[in-house]
Design brief:
Blueprint: E1 4-13, E2 16-26, E3 31-35, H1 42-49, E4 59-62, E5 65-66, H2 72-78, E6 80-83, H3 95-101, H4 114-120, H5 122-126, H6 137-149, E7 155-159, H7 167-174, H8 176-182, E8 186-191, H9 194-200, E9 203-208, E10 211-216, H10 223-231
Parallel strand pairs: 3-8, 3-9, 6-7, 7-8
Antiparallel strand pairs: 1-2, 1-4, 4-5, 9-10
The structure holds adenosine-5'-triphosphate (ATP).
Pfam family, one: ABC_tran
Family: Belongs to the ABC transporter superfamily.
GO biological process, one term: L-amino acid transport
């Protein structure tokens, strides 16, 4: 049985339909990448799963139960934690305080504590007493990931972690995903920048205009297929 799955997921902003029956599946200890151009509906998919958009038509099932009607705090309690686009650190709090904020949502049993997060991203330990927003963009992204991990989520939903970062920094951040997965967490990575996402994902979904246009293991998908599914070009 899948750990998390959407079936026929549909979402609207007022009259505007952003998702048209999206089916995705995430298995235990799996990393799935959802790729697609700006506006494809990737963030809407994550917002629907995490309860930020509620009562969407279609099904969202987690661990066998229907969660589509749950509010965001209840989804968090179940162990589904989002790393939001744009990091959203608290400017008046230190790096360490920003990390500890993640504990308030839920504390599941698991691998993650301040110490293991500092092992994952040693640079954060060096800067732990500095204001979170004084760090570089890449380091702030590490804080946002650490803040999500400290709740020991079963599912980590990551929205465009590479946005605005230099390729070398993106590589450092992506190096963390296999280590996170090794602790037993399942991961959904939303990306416009597909290079790194395809390297760490077990399976990939490509979205265009609110629909899934391609699914498969990265090794089974050709560049041409991905290009066509991403841009709609043939
Ligand atoms: P991005 O990379 O820009 O985040 P995305 O694939 O995540 O793109 P979404 O943000 O999910 O796409 O947006 C899907 C569609 O819904 C787009 O056409 C977008 O303009 C529209 N949309 C997103 N948020 C809202 C909103 N709050 N109100 C109205 N329309 C919205």
């Amino acid at each position: 049985m899948a750990l998390l799955e959407t079936h026929g997921l549909t979402a609207f902003y007022g009259d505007f339909q952003a998702l048209f029956g999206v089916d995705i599946t995430l298995n235990e200890s799996e990393t799935v990448a959802v790729i697609g151009a700006n506006g494809a509906g990737k963030s809407t998919l994550l917002r629907s799963i995490s309860g930020l958009i509620r009562n969407v038509p279609g099904h969202i099932r987690f661990d066998g139960g229907e969660i589509g009607a749950l509010a965001a705090p209840d989804v968090l309690q179940l162990g589904i934690t989002m790393v939001p686009e744009g990091r959203r650190l608290f400017p008046s709090l230190s790096v360490e305080e920003n990390l500890l904020i993640g504990k308030y949502g839920r504390v599941g049993n698991g691998a993650w504590s301040l110490d293991t997060i500092y092992d994952l991203f040693p640079v954060l330990k060096e800067h732990r007493h500095r204001p979170g927003t004084a760090l570089s963009g890449g380091q702030q992204q590490m804080v946002a990931i650490g803040r999500a991990l400290i709740s020991n989520p079963r599912v980590l939903l990551c929205d465009e972690v590479s946005l605005g970062l230099a390729p070398v920094v993106v590589r450092d951040i992506y190096a963390a995903f296999p280590k996170i997965r090794a602790t037993g967490a399942s991961i959904v990575i939303i990306e416009q920048d597909i290079g790194q996402a395809l390297k760490v994902a077990d399976r990939v979904y490509c979205m265009m205009e609110g629909r899934v246009t391609l699914t498969g293991a990265p090794t089974t998908l050709s560049r041409e297929d991905i290009h066509a599914a991403y841009f709609g070009a043939h």
